[in-house]
Amino acid sequence: MVKQLLFVCAFLLLSIALPEQYITRQGTVTFFSYTNVENIQATNNQVLSLFQPDDSAIAVSILMRAFVFEKSLMQEHFNESYIESDLYPKATFEGSIIDFDPSIEGEQTRIIKGDFTLKDVTKQREIKTKITKTEKGYLIEGEFNVSIKDHNIKVPGLLSPNIAETINVSFNFQYEPYEN
Predict the structure, then answer these.
(1) Is 84 exposed, middle or buried (0-12, 13-18, 19+ CB in 10 A)?
(2) Hey, which bits of the chain come out as E strands?
(3) How many angstroms separate the CA atoms of 115 and 119, rounded?
(4) Structural domains in the chain, sorted by start
(5) What Rg, from alpha-carbon coordinates, does the chain have?
């Protein structure tokens, strides 16, 4: 009798539907800073993100040292002086997609609302995104702006003409089913 009860309990636990999850381990985040002196652009192709269509939850983790710049000196300044990657190794986003419908085939334009954290400063964001349901999963892409003042990014006065006060950030995440 005890063995039958244990079997029934185990069966019930295994049959509880876990939310369907999708993952990307090679999402792309690019940022661009325009100034009169020099444009600055960097790309990170090692972004981790999880997406749960059933409850519209999305989480993103960005390793700051994985951004690649055209000039190695820019990359060094970015990591050591501006972002302080040793102290703040990653940026994160946690949120949900407003009015997302996982049953819609093809493309949807929606707002992702959530908390973006950079250098231990969290700011709420509303990001317009394009979400495409594909044969293999989902493609989510969009862009938003980040004010350097909002995240305590200090720029020396001498270099302030070289750094824009607002940085454009774009992202492209190709999700595939997550398998344990």
Answers:
(1) middle
(2) 22-33, 40-52, 57-63, 68-69, 90-97, 106-118, 121-133, 138-147, 166-177
(3) 13
(4) 20-177 (2.40.128.110)
(5) 20
In tens, the pLDDT along 112-169 reads: 999 999 999 999 999 999 999 999 999 999 999 999 899 988 876 666 666 788 999 9
Tokens 């997550």 belong to: 178
Would you tell me how many other CB atoms lie within 10 Å of the CB of residue 97? 24
Say how far apart CA 73 and CA 77 lie, in whole Å: 6
Sorted by sequence, the CB contacts under 8 Å of residue 134 that are 6+ apart come out as 174
* pTM for this prediction: 0.85
- Which tokens in the block code for residue 73? 């000196």
Transcribe 6-55 into DSSP letters: HHHHHHHHHHSPPPP-EEEEEEEEEEEE--SS--EEEEEEEEEEEEETTT
Q: How far are the Cα atoms of 33, 44, 47, 154 from residue 173, in angstroms, in the given order?
A: 21, 12, 8, 30
Cβ-based neighbour number of residue 46 at 10 Å: 16
DSSP letter (8 states) at residue 5: H
